[in-house]
Amino acid sequence: MSGGPQTDGGTRIDGPDYRCQTRTEAVRRDRRGPRMTELSHRNTPGVFDPSAIYSHVVVPPPGRVVFFAGQWGAKVDGTLIDGGFRAQVEQTFSNVQTHLAGLGIGPSHVLKLTHYVVELDQEKRTAMHGVVGTIWKTDKPASTLLGISCLARDEMLYEVDVQAIIPD
Q1: Other Cβ atoms closer than 10 A to 96
Q2: Handedness of CA 13, 15, 19, 25 (dihedral sign)
Q3: Domain ranges, ordered by start, for the chain
Q4: pLDDT of residue 29
Q5: How big is the CA angle at 69 (ends 72 and 41), to the nearest 5 degrees?
Q6: Which residues pair with 40 in a beta bridge?
Q7: DSSP3 helix / strand / coil % (the chain, rounded to 5)
């Protein structure tokens, strides 16, 4: 072999796509296929299709996953927004979008939402889905909705955990 990279067993190899990796590492990388640049939203055939509300599976591109602490309807001064359940959900997602923008990403980078609703009923479910639907018209994040008895503050009616990705 003249001047080319070594490719046997544990010998290090070089090249534009394999910078100082073992052959095993390089082959493993090749098997990963093309790099994804967008989220892949999937609702597998044979399972209920919830795409009007959420996605069953969201596959992220390579990147860093970001976990948000529970977000709620806090104004900048830390007080709860007035106006009831829908106002709290709207303020919560305004806060989420501010956090996303601060990371240089947007709603399309959200992988999963976990909603916590105090005394969940159809009216609250409809209001929450209405707000979420204005942000994600298609390709909705994976989602879990939990009806609970209380949150950290007595007056809080809604909280959401968010997982997002900052793509490579």
Answers
A1: 19
A2: negative
A3: 1-33, 40-167
A4: 39
A5: 95
A6: 59
A7: 25, 25, 45
Containing 82, the helix (H) or strand (E) segment is: none
Q: Which residues are registered as beta bridge partners of 80?
A: 74
CA 109/CA 65 separation, integer angstroms = 10
Q: Measured between alpha carbons, how far is 70 from 161 in angstroms, rounded to an integer?
A: 5
Name which of 162, 163, 164 is nearest 72 in CA terms: 162
Residues in the chain: 168
* CATH class of the domain comprising 40-167: alpha beta
Give the residue, 85 or 21, on which the prediction is more confident: 85
In angstroms, the CA 5 to CA 8 distance is 10
In this prediction, residues 49-69 reach a mean pLDDT of 83
Q: Tokens for 73?
A: 């309807």
- 156 and 72 Cβ atoms separated by less than 8 Å: yes
CB burial class (10 A; 0-12, 13-18, 19+) of residue 54?
buried
Nearest Cα to 93, choosing from 38, 135, 65? 135
Mean pLDDT of the chain, nearest integer:
81
- Residue (of 155, 45, 163, 41) closest to 100 by Cα position: 163
Q: What crossing angle do the helices spanning 122-135 and 85-102 adopt, rounded to 10°?
A: 30
pLDDT tens profile 92-124? 999 999 999 999 999 999 999 999 999 999 999
